[in-house]
Design brief:
By secondary structure, the protein is α/β, with parallel strands linked by helices. The protein folds into two domains: about 1-30; about 35-285, Metal-dependent hydrolases (TIM Barrel, Alpha-Beta Barrel), CATH 3.20.20.140. It has helices at about 1-10, 15-30, 50-55, 75-85, 105-115, 140-155, 165-175, 180, 195-200, 220-225, 255-265, 270-285; strands at about 35-40, 65-70, 90-95, 120-130, 160-165, 185, 205-210, 230-235. An eight-stranded parallel β-sheet has the order 1-2-3-4-5-6-7-8. α9 links the parallel β6 (about 185) and β7 (about 205-210). The longest helix has 18 residues, at about 15-30. It is globular and about 45 Å long. The two termini are about 35 Å apart. The chain binds zinc ion. Zinc ion (ZN) binds next to loops.
């Protein structure tokens, strides 16, 4: 070792730079197979206008080797397509969030279908029901939720479900539409442990993000303890919902390490196990190979 160090000291700058790069790539290769999959991010959001490219390119330094950019508005479809087209580790979900279904019509559904047939489209989302902000258009929300579920069924794609203050209607639709057969995730899960267990029984995944680190998230913590890790996927919902200790700041996939730590502590397992298992869950859900090429 002494000899190696001495000969390193006598290398010129260029050679040192070369060996340093080699050293880092060896560290990266041998660090283990743990990898983080952010199953739900909004990097098209204007919160990333200043540093989007640098942010996305440095995610592998935080072991985040893949993410799915999730559309929610009509305008975000094209932005999501551009992100998936530009970055190797980026995939796309295309769908219209319940807050924004007011503009939908048959013609727009046909365009949405075209987006969903693009090479890196892995899911329909985010779609669902939100009675928190919108109480007056429940029928309309339910109608477009079902229409987008039908599209997912037709295209054999899983769904990313947003559901807020709509536990009962979401469960009813899940049963009626045979959601287990479509597959997907209840994103940013915020309902009871009993309902989580029922979704898990259907074969769906439970999306867990920054909220699990919050002190007052007792119910979510119980749910994470109750269900098997085999049914949990990691997500940020960035730029929203940054975990502790960064709560209240702009979120990014870099922060998923705090979510991994919280899940590991709740379940009494290692962070490596959380990363490995949730990586495989996300790959299975989105029908991607485990290995990155
Ligand atoms: Zn979202």
């Amino acid at each position: 070792m002494g000899d190696m160090l001495r000969s390193f000291l006598f290398l010129d700058g260029e050679q040192k730079a070369f060996y340093s790069i080699e050293f880092h790539s060896i560290v990266r290769r041998t660090r283990g197979r743990e990898m983080i999959f952010d199953t739900h991010a909004h990097y098209e959001d204007e919160a990333f206008d200043e540093d989007r490219d640098a942010m996305i390119r440095t995610l592998p330094d935080y072991r985040v080797q893949r993410f799915v950019n999730v559309a929610s508005t009509w305008e975000s479809l094209e932005k999501t397509k551009n992100i998936a087209g530009k970055y190797k580790n980026a995939y796309a979900a295309y769908g219209i969030h319940p807050d924004n279904v007011g503009d939908l019509d048959d013609q727009k559904m046909a365009v949405l279908k075209d987006y969903l047939q693009l090479p890196k489209a892995v899911a329909v989302g985010e779609i669902g029901l939100d009675y928190h902000w919108n109480k007056d258009n429940r029928e309309q929300q339910i109608y477009w939720f079902r229409r987008q579920l039908a599209l997912a069924r037709q295209l054999r794609l899983p769904v990313i479900i947003h559901s807020r203050d709509a536990a009962q209607d979401t469960m009813t639709i899940a049963r009626e539409e045979d959601l287990g057969n479509i597959g997907g995730v209840i994103h940013c899960y915020a309902y009871s442990t009993e309902q989580a267990e029922e979704y898990v029984k259907m074969g769906l995944y439970i999306g867990v993000g920054g909220v699990v680190t919050f002190k007052n998230a007792r119910r979510l913590k119980e749910t994470v303890q109750a269900i098997s890790l085999d049914h949990i996927v990691l997500e940020t919902d960035c730029p929203y919902l940054a975990p502790e200790p960064n709560r209240g700041t702009r979120n990014s996939s870099r922060n998923l390490r705090y979510v991994v730590r919280a899940i590991a502590d709740l379940k009494g397992i290692t962070t490596d196990e959380v990363e490995q298992t949730t990586w495989r869950n996300a790959c299975r859900m989105y029908k991607l190979p485990y290995e990155i090429s």
